[in-house]
Design a protein that fits this description.
Elements (H helix, E strand, L loop, with lengths): L10 E4 L5 E7 L3 E7 L2 H16 L11 H12 L5 H19 L9 H13 L4 H20 L26 H11 L5 H10 L3 H5 L6 E2 L4 E4 L2 E5 L2 E5 L8 E4 L2 H20 L21 H16 L7 H13 L4 H8 L4 H7 L4 H17 L1
Antiparallel strand pairs: 1-2, 2-3, 4-5, 5-8, 6-7
Helix pairs in contact: 2-3, 3-4, 3-5, 6-10, 7-9, 7-11, 12-13
Length: 373
């Protein structure tokens, strides 16, 4: 038997098929209809739509598949993201999000759909970092969907965020670092490895360095760009963050290595002038073009580590080594943070908390000296 409507409840009525239906009025004499198995289910939908109207949100959203929306969003993001970052966004969406719920209506996407995808990714043996990257992408995309009036909420707010996995950090001791630099003496990229170990610059920042960024008289270099490899070739991009654009003081060791490198590069350029790429890069291949990261690692970096008799580490671990050596020598974390181009000192302290005991011991010694003379 039809249930009597309460005052202000709206139009809810039973249908011949046993389901319930209701509607709310929209501007322009239009109506938005809702259906459900029970009266209560329809009333809940009406209440939600009315609440959205009260908050200035549309009660009726444009029907759009998730796949169509995410393609539109990626198209917009291509104008603002670095090429390498956009490529990663597109790859994660194409490989995981679209197969899981690409055909689903965007408005009907639920936290459980995303949570189920994460479980499948775990079963497939994918790293937590991959899930975390996808989580960030989906959260950002669906936040934009709200601004585009396609949905009324961000379902990612109801999804349990994957836990970030900390990659094992391997660093060289001072003795190992010296042995590594000794093994690099006379090597074509000696100056590159010296800079990596004494400044903590990222690989892309080193490979994107130009000679106009180097001031040997002042003993400084300016980090203003980064070299990235994309499917369309090499591109020079803005540094990773605002703080990544910075000036770094150089050691005499680094200045000397750069001067020798400039002399050698000039001689090489004169011999190969007819096909030399005039890009003014500090570190180049044999024709003056950008260096392939894979070649640098496979044919230069790893063999030099082996020659030096030190552990096989990632190139990025030279950056960690630089920070650890500086902090271990009592350099203030704020200075180390600025050298590395971290967005805040908190990142530096969090990454290199293992150096804190040494710093605390130095503080105790300093206090003893101050109080006992």
């Amino acid at each position: 038997m039809a249930r009597r409507r309460a005052n202000g409840e709206g139009s809810i009525y039973p249908r011949k098929d046993g389901r319930w239906e209701g509607y709310i009025s929209l501007p322009g004499m239009e109506r938005k209809f809702f259906t459900g198995k029970t009266h209560a289910a329809v009333k809940a939908k009406l209440d939600k739509a009315k609440k959205a109207q009260g908050e200035g949100l549309p009660a009726k959203f444009e029907r759009k598949r998730f796949a169509d929306f995410i393609d539109d969003w990626l198209g917009e993001m291509r104008l603002t993201l670095k090429p390498k970052t956009w490529t990663r966004y597109e790859q994660l969406v194409r490989l995981y999000a679209k197969p899981a719920f690409g055909k689903k209506d965007l408005e009907k996407l639920q936290p459980q759909d995303v949570q189920r995808l994460y479980a499948q990714m775990t079963e497939a043996g994918l790293a937590e970092g991959t899930k975390l990257q996808l989580h960030s992408i989906l959260h950002k995309a669906l936040k934009q969907a709200i601004l585009w009036n396609l949905v009324g909420r961000n379902v990612m707010d109801g999804v349990i965020r994957p836990k970030p996995s900390q990659k094992d950090m391997k660093t060289l001791s001072p003795q190992q670092a010296r042995r590594f630099l000794e093994s690099a003496q006379g090597h074509r990229y000696e100056a590159l490895f010296v800079l990596a170990l004494t400044t903590g610059m990222r690989q892309g920042e080193l490979l994107g360095l130009r000679w106009e960024d180097v001031d040997p008289e002042a003993g400084t270099i300016r980090v203003q760009r980064s070299l990235q490899r994309t499917k369309d070739g090499f591109v020079l991009t803005e540094p990773k963050t605002k703080r990544s654009r910075r000036q770094i003081e150089l050691t005499e060791l680094a200045v000397d290595a750069l001067e020798r490198h400039r002399i050698n590069q000039t001689a090489e350029k004169l011999l190969n002038e007819s096909y030399w790429h005039q890009q003014r890069l500090v570190f180049t291949n044999t024709t003056g073009g950008p260096i392939e990261s894979s070649h640098l690692l496979r044919h230069c970096f790893h063999p030099l580590l082996k020659r030096a008799g030190v552990p096989q580490i990632r190139f990025h671990d030279l950056r960690h080594t630089a920070a650890t050596l500086l902090l271990g020598q009592g350099v203030h974390p704020k200075i180390v943070s600025e050298m590395l181009g971290h967005s805040s000192i908190a990142i530096t302290l969090d990454l290199y908390s293992h150096v804190t005991p040494t710093m605390q011991q130095q503080a105790v010694t300093a206090m003893e000296t101050a109080l006992r003379g």
